[in-house]
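Researcher: I'd like a structural prediction for the single chain below. Treat it as a standalone chain; there are no partners to consider.
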Amino acid sequence: MTHTGHKVEKIGGTSMSRLRELRDTLLIGDREGEALYNRIFVVSAFGGITDLLLEHKKSGQPGVFALFANDDNDHGWLDALSGVATAMCEIHGKVLDSDGDRQMADEFVRDRIEGARSCLFDLQRLCSYGHFRLADHMGVTRELLSGLGEAHSAFVATLLLQRSGVNARFVDLSGWRDERVCSLRERIGQGLDGIDFSTELPIVTGYAQCTEGLMREYDRGYSEVTFSKIAAQTGAAEAIIHKEFHLSSADPKLVGPGAVRKIGHTNYDVADQLSNMGMEAIHPNAAKTLRQSDIPLRVTNAFDPADPGTLIDDQPAETPGVEIVTGLDVVALELFEQDMVGVKGYDATTLEALRRHNVRIVSKSSNANTITHYVEASLKTVKRVVGELERAYPSAQVGARAVSIVSAIGRDLSGLHSLSRGLQALEEAGIDVIGAHQTSRNVDVQFAVPRDASDTAVARLHEALIGQGKAGLSVVAA
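Model: Treating it as a single chain, here is the predicted structure.
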């Protein structure tokens, strides 16, 4: 598709919670007339709302969905849903200045929450009959609830911008009370149909109801997938993700704010490595869509609109260099079998056990009689995998221990001797390296270290492989 000159931009939930600031900087700022348009904004729910609707992303504390899924007839989900409504109204009450706008937002929340409540009640009644199982409908229920958050934030943002004189349009892709069965492409096409990007500013929900089932496929990474599909489908000149920080060379809390550098320019290969290390600049599936559509991605600080941020495209590095150092807590799952040499099946059995328990592999190493998978999972989950492997291979020694992987990443590490220099830096810091490797592609070097040494390892590797950045660069850890 030919680029039309417009940009598709995404705002995350944490940034949306500072919507009034965004209005005065990113959304409007000093723009006037035509400069306000030729942009499509895809928004996430206000910070904390999706946690209340589903479950807390980090602590696992149950939200409406989790309570509904485990309902034992005390209807705790009802109180939780009412709590969501209260939280939504408190948020837009602080964002919107006009009493009329607040009343419209209150009514919007009331309609959506009451509709969801009726739907969940009807579903419970239906599943009280033996022919229907609640578990069969939980995927759709999760999508219904999650869509409430994005619809609310997009509606409120539209009201705020319209009150400020911007010709903003609320584009609801959540499928609310829509009986049509649509693919994602059809849903996007119908939502944006008839909009003149040069004179209107679409504010689009990050959740899109479609036959593909975004949450089933991507769970809470769906908003970036919607964002990338819109960019590809509309032929955007650029896709932009606005965060509350610059994409920097390390966590400034670990290496010092005066030492970190804004990356500035990198490629999709590095973005994939960051995703693997739990530092998603963008969901890998969304990156794939943009990459295949030849659309560059820019990651900016939403509250520093004058800075161009970091451009991510397919261009190789002009000179080799480490661009970022980051760490991830993992569990090392080690299978040792003296009779493994020349025998097939050990690796396949391990992979199948990890798949069954939905355990993500971050890295892997092996030799003649030992296979080690570094996985992102709780020790409790990994112990279940260990039990399976011990039953499959009674004579094998299978163990698991908590470690961290610290990785130095860049578009081109050739000729830098990053592995040997990194090992030397860690040895000088008194850090015991459990394992280390570098692939032939020369885009990352990984060091497995004791978990309590992870922060120190990041700082020492950053100092040895990147050095000092611009003093005073204002960034927050990605």
